[in-house]
Every structure is written in C-alpha cells, then in structure tokens.
C-alpha cells in the first residue's frame, strides 16, 4: 500500500525537497494534497507533476487564480477554499502522512489537526512546536499521532536515542545540538547593524527559506531548536546544549550517562532527514551523495559567542519562565524578522525586539487551548510590532 501524503507548504524549500524524494519512489508514496501561500505558478507545476486530489492557497484571490489555471490545463485537482482548508487536507480520512513544512505559527492549526487525526506527522515547521509546547505534545499523545522530526538536528537526535523511550531518563545524560554559526560567525559584531537581507539569507551550506535563513544568521534558529528539542524529547532545559560546528557534517549528538557520545553524520542536504522520516523505520534512498571521508576537510567545533548571538540564551530563559513564554518569543521573532526582511529594522535590533517583548508580555495563565495560544501569539505580535517602531529605519 502506498502512503498518501499531504504536503503543507509544498512550494517552499522543505516542500520541494520532499517532492523530490517522493518523485524517486512512485511505488511507495502518492500525493493527496499540496498547499502554498502565494506562489500560484509553482503550485500549478506541482499539481501537473503529482496530480493531487486537493490544492490549497492561503488567500481566496490566489485560490481563484490557481483554480482558473488548473481548469485551463485540464487538471482535475480541486482547489479547497475555506478558512480551515489546511486543517481539512491535514486530517482527511484518506491521508496517512502529513509533511508540516509551512513556515511560522501559521502552521500550528493544520499540524495540530493532523495530530488530532492520529496521522503520521513529519514536522519541519519548528515554530508550530515552539508555539504549541505542552499542548502540542499532549495532543500527539492523546490521539496516537506518530511525530517524526524533520529538522536535521532533531532527526539526528531521534536516530541516536535508544529506541525504547522509557529508558531515556536512566540512560541519556544530555543532547548536544550542532549549529553552523551562520554567515556572520566571524564578522565584526560592531558591523551587524549594516547587514542587508540578501547577506543574511546567504547561508554558507544550505539554501533555505528567507525566514529560517535570517534565524540562522541571528542563531534564533538554534534558540527555537532548543525549545523544539525540549518538547520533542522531553528533556529538561539544562540537558540541552549547543556547540558551533561550521562544516555541518555532524548533525547533532546524544551523550549517555557513561559519557559515550553518539552522533549522526551526513552530507548537509535536507532530503536525508526527509527521507528518514518518510520511510521510518525503514530506509529509502534520498538522492543525496554519501560522505566521502577521504575528501573531507577537518571537522571543527567551537563555543557560541554570546555577544555576537545574544538571542541564543533566550530559549533557556523562555523555557524556565511561565508556560506560554515560548509562544511570545516566537511571535516577537516572526515580527522582528519580517521587519528586517522588509528593511524596516536593522539586523542587530532583532534580538532587542525579542528581549523587550519577553520583558513586556509575561503570560499569566497557562494557554490551555489552541484559541488561547493563538490569542497569546496575536498579543505578542502587537507588542513586538510596537516595540520594533523604536528602531524603524
Ligand atoms: P519556505 O519559506 O521556503 O517555504 C514555506 C512554505 O510555506 C511555502 O510553501 C509557502 O508558500 C508556505 N507558507 C508561507 N507562509 C504561509 C502561510 N501564512 N500560510 C500558509 N502557507 C504559508 O520555508 P522553508 O521550507 O525553508 O521552511 C519551512 C519550515 O521548515 C520552517 O518552519 C523552517 O524553520 C523549517 N526548516 C527548514 C529547513 C530548510 O532547510 N529550509 C531546515 C529545517 C527546518 P509560498 O511558496 O507560496 O510562499
Ligand atoms: Mg535545523
């Protein structure tokens, strides 16, 4: 039986890599539904190639354009248009697996819908977990959802951890996330205010979406990943450490009680963790060339510089603060990154917005529902947008 897949965010960097793996295994996977925000022609081309039953666009105007073009091309894919269309394609009875590859908190509701429907959920959309926190993991547990990490670090940790989760508390000492350090690892921190969006989006090893590229440059990506690891693996914040590894060959590590350390290595290409999640516990080819150790340069490791990367420690701070604080941090960062990409906020003020938002908005109640999470997210966006005004350029 083929696995039937919904790909949320299919036109993005993770979405297209996912479809590349699907294309290599037509006997094992078929596409049930695809989604995008604004790229109508890219989604049309994917509908031509994969003939999904449904396609979803983020706005009615884009949905209407796609529906027209599908008709002109005699394609049978139906465009679903409703506020909860993403949730529909994520939870449909005929879907086995959902790839969550939307960027930002916008992916929360559809990922939760997949979890509630007990799907196999391949999660790249780390913000959904950072926003959803305990509620997200409880939903996964209550509805028998199989949650498989796609973020390369978390896929590495998942592969290195003992298979029997009940042994982790006894056997696992800590987890070590590796970080590339991004494009400004060696740049004079005093010049970070002049960084342009194009410079920030030029990652040394990966071609990724613009938001995660900026997050990598500020190391907020690693801060979000510390929070993601806390929820995925149930580790205490003190059990999660970060080390810079510019070559990005070691994707992350697990330290056991006897100080043995297990690492997962591979060519830095997201198709590896994507193929791993798609086939788990089996293995399939990803289309990625394996490492050639005889051609490899030295692998190096260094500590993260707190002056250059002031956002990194915010993850531990937020995890120790009242529940909901990670939701606030994520919202602030989405607002700050969008302002930077629109050339309205200097690069070195992104963390100032994040810190000031955390200081101003302390959640008083545990967000106990999706509505409460989205409400807190909206409040934090409003606060962050106001704070960002201080540094408007
Ligand atoms: P991209 O920006 O490349 O793609 C995002 C996708 O989501 C696109 O299909 C986009 O549509 C769609 N989208 C954007 N905003 C919305 C919205 N408001 N509602 C519905 N759909 C939306 O991002 P990436 O693929 O780089 O990243 C996706 C997720 O995976 C992020 O959470 C990121 O942190 C995570 N991730 C990415 C990695 C990478 O290598 N890229 C590595 C590890 C994790 P459209 O194309 O029409 O704009
Ligand atoms: Mg990652």
Notable traits:
single chain, 393 residues, alpha/beta, Rossmann fold, Rna Polymerase Sigma Factor, Chain: A, 3 domains, seven-stranded parallel β-sheet, four-stranded mixed β-sheet, 11 strands, binds NADPH dihydro-nicotinamide-adenine-dinucleotide phosphate, binds magnesium ion
Task: Write up what this structure looks like.
Its cofactor is Mg(2+); Mn(2+). It is an enzyme of class 1 (oxidoreductase). This is 1-deoxy-D-xylulose 5-phosphate reductoisomerase. It comes from Comamonas denitrificans. By secondary structure, the protein is of the alpha/beta class. The protein folds into 3 domains: 3-150, Rossmann fold (3-Layer(aba) Sandwich); 151-313, no CATH class; 321-393, RNA polymerase sigma factor, region 2, helix turn helix motif (Rna Polymerase Sigma Factor, Chain: A). It contains 16 helices and 11 strands. The protein has helices at residues 13-24, 40-50, 60-72, 85-91, 108-116, 126-142, 152-160, 168-171, 197-200, 210-218, 220-233, 271-279, 314-320, 325-341, 350-360, 370-388, and strands spanning 3-8, 29-36, 54-57, 78-80, 97-100, 120-123, 146-149, 172-179, 240-244, 250-256, 261-265. The protein has a 7-stranded parallel sheet with strand order 4-3-2-1-5-6-7, sandwiched between helices. The protein has a 4-stranded mixed sheet with strand order 9-8-10-11. β10 (250-256) and β11 (261-265) form a beta hairpin. α5 (108-116) runs parallel beside α6 (126-142), α11 packs parallel to α13 and α14 packs across α16 (370-388). The longest helix has 19 residues, at 370-388. The model has no long low-confidence stretch (mean pLDDT 97).
């Amino acid at each position: 039986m083929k696995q039937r897949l919904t790909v949320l965010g299919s036109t993005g960097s993770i979405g297209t890599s996912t479809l590349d793996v699907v294309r290599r295994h037509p006997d094992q996977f078929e596409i049930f539904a695809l989604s995008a925000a604004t790229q109508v022609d890219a989604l049309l081309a994917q509908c031509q190639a994969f003939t999904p039953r449904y396609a979803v666009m983020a706005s009615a105007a884009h949905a209407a354009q796609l529906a027209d073009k599908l008709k002109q091309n005699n394609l049978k894919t139906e465009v679903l248009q409703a506020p909860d269309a993403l949730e529909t394609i994520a939870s449909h009875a005929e879907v086995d697996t959902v790839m969550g590859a939307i960027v930002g908190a916008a992916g929360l509701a559809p990922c939760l819908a997949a979890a509630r429907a007990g799907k196999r959920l391949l999660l790249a959309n780390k913000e959904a977990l950072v926003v959803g926190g305990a509620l997200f993991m409880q939903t996964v547990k209550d509805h028998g959802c199989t949650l498989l990490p796609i973020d390369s670090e978390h896929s590495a940790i998942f592969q290195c951890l003992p298979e029997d989760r009940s042994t982790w508390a006894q056997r696992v000492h800590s987890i070590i996330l590796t970080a590339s350090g991004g494009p400004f690892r060696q740049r004079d921190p005093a010049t970070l205010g002049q960084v342009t969006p194009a410079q920030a989006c030029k990652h040394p090893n990966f071609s990724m979406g613009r938001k995660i590229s900026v997050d990598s440059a500020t190391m907020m990506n690693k801060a979000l990943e510390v929070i993601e690891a806390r929820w995925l693996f149930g580790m205490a914040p003190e059990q999660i450490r970060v080390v810079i590894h510019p070559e990005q060959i070691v994707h992350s590590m697990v330290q056991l009680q006897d100080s043995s350390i297990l690492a997962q290595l591979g060519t830095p290409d997201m198709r590896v963790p994507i193929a791993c999640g798609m086939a788990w516990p089996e293995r399939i080819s990803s289309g990625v060339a394996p490492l050639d150790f005889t051609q490899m340069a030295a692998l190096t490791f260094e500590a993260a510089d707190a002056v250059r990367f002031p956002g990194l420690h915010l993850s531990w701070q937020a995890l120790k603060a009242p529940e909901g604080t990670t939701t606030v941090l994520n919202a602030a960062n989405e607002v700050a990154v969008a302002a930077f990409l629109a050339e309205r906020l200097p690069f070195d003020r992104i963390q100032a917005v994040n810190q000031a938002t955390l200081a101003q908005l302390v959640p008083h109640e545990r967000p106990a529902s999706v509505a409460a999470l989205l409400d807190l997210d909206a409040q934090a966006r409003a606060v962050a947008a106001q704070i960002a005004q201080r540094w408007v350029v």
